[in-house]
Design a protein that fits this description.
single chain; 726 residues; alpha+beta; Rossmann fold; eight-stranded mixed sheet; five-stranded antiparallel sheet; 13 helices; 37% strand
């Protein structure tokens, strides 16, 4: 009798806990952002002082790094309100930046996104001493960008398709170029494919002394135009822009130097520009020499060309090469001697740091079977380099410091998580963002030794919310593929997990070249909340990084060369087949989904998986690499003319007839990145094959499929599809 009472009590407690547990909904995730970690609003280091600023309601607040005290409000709300005649408020600031002397602040308002990295905004310069406000250009025009010269005396900006500068003392605006024309000539800002694939939007920069401006001119006239219909009117409106697909012509790009004193632009003769890229232009500290990066079309040779603006002389001071491809980064630091630099390179099979003497020695500073992710700060006086790497563990990212001679290396963070840092210009302090697999990002101020001085945001409030919904922890898992390759993944199980039961599994993937999803970090918070919702509904979620992804060296990442998709799909299929061997996995109920490259990979894995997956969902997938842009695609595949089999044999469309199970494709009709054309090609192939599938399209939505109720609708549809088909 006593045993029955205890059993009944336990059952009642279990039922109570089940009903008491708050249920996660898509609305909580995407409408209310209840589980999204918070950062530090408007954090900016002062250019010279040991101080930083943050955006508050009262204004731009100035803090001391050393003790955290507020040293003042550098731009009070009331002063901005008065200077603008009541038109502007601190709360409406989109971005801000200081001049080097800290006396002027560039303010951006009304920012509107164009593509991934580009935007339009109204810009103003606030004088902190005079408490005056000056509009850049005039408020009737929205600008592509605006940047102060280091002395704060001038602003360079792009309006429509031309480049200008403004003297702030006189207010005079000088037009630098006059041939700009949409979809034809762009001056001072990048075309679509440079922006998307070479991580640049602004393409103009001041020399350190403010006497010159280096800028790029893009001639798009030979690039083919892509047209997308925008729905909503009686007759759809066509949106047209230049988009070079794989194997097609790019813009002709020229590099110019504009001399403020002379009022003249000089084109740098860099040879044939019909099949190459100019992804970066830098100034040396002497303001006389510019460094132009020239990348060949195959993207396996990168030349650093020094150009003397006084004599016109030029020479190649450094070349990086790779037998497959190399990535253009921002890890290039030019030292004050004007004759050397610190760079990263994969030349020994792993990404490491080198000190290069122009035209001379290349000295390796870091080495080992691990990867430097990014250089964070260079202290020339002490000859020290601060950098992020995964030396502490393949899934980690920590901050290290090392001397120029490769000695006295130290780790400055915990060695058991994922670090992101923002150093102040003099390097005395940095803001640290640190998280781990199951720990939300914590923002702190640290000194250059790594010592934590104070906490800016620990995200405890968000953690408490997550706890109230019963969030479960992820675990790191690994297995060895039939090819003998060890793959790492993470797994999330239901809170009431019973190893004696068998559960359906939903795999998620991205898998693109150089990406990483499996890491000792709290990354992708919104999707993680969605997987927590699935866990409450009895699903296991799993993610694996296959070959082609980052942090494990060239051999692991670049095995995909000229056959992108092949090994990536093999590894997702192998992961599904390994999961089927686990006693708690229902091997007949494994699904896979992904977005963008992940959408491509989920389709290819299912179509070629020979019943490995019961269902798949592809959001905004590439379905044929011939339809994607040339810089990205050719980096890994070369052109379709050079490598037709590489394209055709790794297209989901090729295997549409082999598709088994339930498949859903989702796409935005106004996707400027992965064109809706991809979805139409795959749908047509599925139709021709006579297989059953599902489709859903979002009118006028781009690659991110956001705005209004869109994301909530999409994830509710995804959840419903999983419930009904897995």
């Amino acid at each position: 009798m006593k045993k029955h009472i205890l059993t009944f009590t336990t059952l009642l407690f279990s039922i109570f806990c089940t009903f008491a547990q708050k249920q996660i909904t898509v609305e909580e995730i995407w409408d209310r952002f209840s589980f999204y970690p918070r950062g530090v609003a408007g954090y900016t280091s002062m250019p010279r002082s040991d101080e930083f600023t943050v955006l508050k309601r009262a204004g731009i607040e100035r803090h001391n790094f050393s003790d955290g005290s507020v040293s003042g409000i550098i731009l009070p709300h009331d002063d901005l309100d008065a200077a603008s005649g009541g038109r502007l408020s601190v709360g409406a600031i989109s971005e801000y930046a200081f001049s080097d002397d800290e006396k002027k602040i560039m303010l951006a308002f009304d920012m509107e996104s164009i593509y991934r990295r580009s935007s339009l905004a109204h810009y103003y310069v606030y004088d902190t001493e005079k408490k005056t406000l000056a509009a850049v250009s005039d408020t009737s025009h929205m600008l592509r960008f605006a940047e102060l010269s280091k002395d704060g005396g001038k602003v360079v900006f792009a309006r429509e398709c031309d480049l200008y500068y403004q003297d702030l003392a006189t207010g005079k605006v000088t037009r630098i170029t006059s041939d700009g024309k949409p979809n034809h000539i762009l001056n001072g800002f990048a075309d679509w494919v440079y922006e998307e694939e070479l991580s640049m939007s602004q393409a103009a920069s001041w020399s350190p002394d403010g006497s010159k401006i280096a800028y790029l001119r893009f001639d798009e006239s030979r690039v083919k135009e892509f047209t997308m219909p925008l729905y909503g009117e009686l007759y759809p409106v066509d949106f047209k822009y230049k988009y070079p697909k794989a194997g097609e012509d790019n813009s002709l790009v020229d590099v110019y130097i504009y001399d403020i004193g002379k009022g003249t632009s000089t084109r740098i003769d860099l040879g044939d520009n019909s099949n190459c890229y100019f992804p970066r232009v830098y100034w040396l500290p002497n303001s006389r020499d510019a460094i132009v990066l020239k990348l060949n079309r195959h993207q396996n040779r990168l030349d650093f060309i020094r150009y003397n603006t006084e004599t016109g002389a030029q020479d190649i001071v450094y070349t990086d090469v790779n037998d497959r491809w190399l990535d253009v980064t921002d890890n290039y630091y030019f030292l004050k001697d004007n004759n050397s630099m610190i760079v990263t390179s994969e030349r020994d099979g792993f990404n490491h740091i080198y000190k290069v003497t122009f035209g001379g020695d290349i000295k390796q500073i870091t080495s080992g079977d691990w990867e430097v992710n990014e250089i964070q700060h260079i202290n020339e006086a002490k000859k020290q380099i601060y950098y992020l790497s995964n030396e502490s563990g393949v899934l980690n990212r920590d901050l290290y410091v090392i001397n120029f001679d490769g000695k006295k290396k130290q780790i400055l963070t915990a060695g058991d998580g994922w670090a992101g840092t923002l150093f102040c210009p003099n390097g005395n302090y940095f803001r640290l963002q640190y998280s781990s697999l199951n720990t939300l990002p914590k923002y702190t101020i640290n000194d250059r030794t790594g010592k934590e001085l104070r906490v800016l945001n620990d995200n405890k409030a968000v953690q408490n919310t997550m706890d109230s919904y019963g969030f479960v922890k992820r675990e790191i898992i690994s297995f060895t593929t039939p090819d003998g390759v060890t793959l790492y993944g993470w797994i999330m199980k239901p809170a009431d997990f019973d190893p004696g039961k068998r559960y359906p599994v939903m795999m998620n993937c991205y898998g693109g070249p150089g990406s990483q999803q499996v890491m000792n970090a709290y990354s992708g918070a919104q999707d993680l909340a969605f997987y927590q919702m699935l866990a409450q509904q009895g699903y296991i979620s799993v993610c694996f990084d296959g070959r082609g992804t980052a942090t494990r060296g060239d051999a692991f990442k670049k095995v995909i060369y000229q056959q992108m998709g092949k090994y990536e799909a093999m590894d997702q299929i192998a992961a599904a087949n390994w999961l089927k061997t686990l006693p708690y996995v229902d091997g007949n109920r494994i699904g896979i989904w992904g977005w963008s490259f992940g959408g491509y990979l989920s389709a290819l894995s299912m179509f070629r998986g020979d019943d490995a997956f019961k269902m798949a969902v592809s959001v905004a997938p590439v379905t044929n690499w011939r339809y994607y842009d040339n810089i990205y695609t050719e980096r890994f595949m070369r052109t379709p003319q050079e490598n037709p089999d590489g394209y055709d044999l790794n297209s989901p469309t090729t295997y549409a007839k082999d598709m088994k199970g339930k498949y859903l494709i989702i796409h935005g009709t106004a996707d400027d990145n992965v064109h809706f054309q991809n979805a139409m090609e795959l749908v047509n192939a599925l139709n021709q094959s006579g297989v059953d599938y599902d489709q859903f399209f979002f009118p006028n939505k781009n690659h991110f499929i956001m705005g209004g109720n869109t994301r909530t609708y999409l994830y509710n549809k995804l959840a419903k599809y999983i419930r009904e088909n897995l």
